[in-house]
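Field reference: sequence -> structure
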Amino acid sequence: MDQEVNPALAHADAVAPMPGDVALKLEPLVPEKPSWGAVAAMMLGVTALLTAEFLPSGLLTPMANDLGVSPGLAGQAVTATSLAGLVGALFTPTLTRSFNRKPVLLSFSILLVISNLLVALAASITFLLAARIVLGLAIGGFWAMAAATTIRLVPTSLVPRALSIVMSGIPAAMIIAVPLGSYLSEVASWRSVFLLAMAFGAAVFVIQALVLPRLAPRGEAGLGTLIDIVTRPGIGAGILAATLVFTGHFGYFGYIRPFLESVTGLGAAGVAATLLAFGVANYLGSFVSGLMAERKLKLTLIAMPVAISVLGLLLPVYGRDLIPALALIALWGFAFSGVPVATTTWITRMVPDETESGTGLTVASIFLGITMGAAGGGLVLDSMGAAAVFVAGAVPLVLAALLIAAKVRTKAP
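Structure field:
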């Protein structure tokens, strides 16, 4: 059943009826009561979409073997997804600015289901990459709207808590996708894993259809709005820094399985256990980093990429043995948890008047970083080996930290 937002607040906007609406509805700028069911539905959307996005990281070897390509080329499944995500994040707010937000969000879950089915049926790397483009459009569009939708579901005082709940879908996806996906690919097949991801996406669609409220669009959401946002003081530097952070991180993360197999010497069970440690630490860290971002936002923005770069440089040195590799990867997972939370908190704080466009721009920059990291990491992997991936990935992470320290503001003027 559709939930209608409480219209009882004094400051309410008149909203023109959308297709299927019977009468004029009033929606408050800030709800009186939190809609935690809807917040949970948004979190499940993040989990399902990012589970599908992260799956190739844990399935890289069997996918490459089955399709007859190198692991570096198979890793471009991440590149294709992120490149399409960039397009989806940039243009979804503009193309859907006149539509009610609920059906738009539901459409992304439908695309998720279609993509996972097509990947499971893929007979070639070309077909697989095309299916991953469908997923990327869904992820980019959903992320562009996620924060802006979430802050309309709860009173202002509960926004940080609601955002942290939604963002907890990121580590949840890492726990499901990489270690569990890696393990299941050994006992069944990588195609079966994508079919399970399809079923998960279908279940999330049903839940969202039942609990998400209908929300009218807000803001201008034109292409000129993106230019206005990026030219505001400190915003452009922050967008560039986000790109660099995700370039470094996904230069690492997309190729972690080949590293654990070729350098640490782990089998499928060891890889799954190590990646589970990453996911669990990331999940626990999301709550700690939420508190850090709320109290010391700039410090959080700087500290996380520095920590990830140091851990990445230590992995080729100490990652040949299981225990040090396990500890370093768990710490890496904990450190990365602060990146999406702090980045989302930053952009919603700096662009409160155009949250959808601001988050869309940020998400597009993140997907650009993922694209460059996945593509560059694949080239380094095939030409120089798994250990070199972690050395190369440290460079953009350090540059991001320096840029944030010098140029990024964390308080709106």
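Note: Confidence is low (pLDDT under 50) at residues 1-26.
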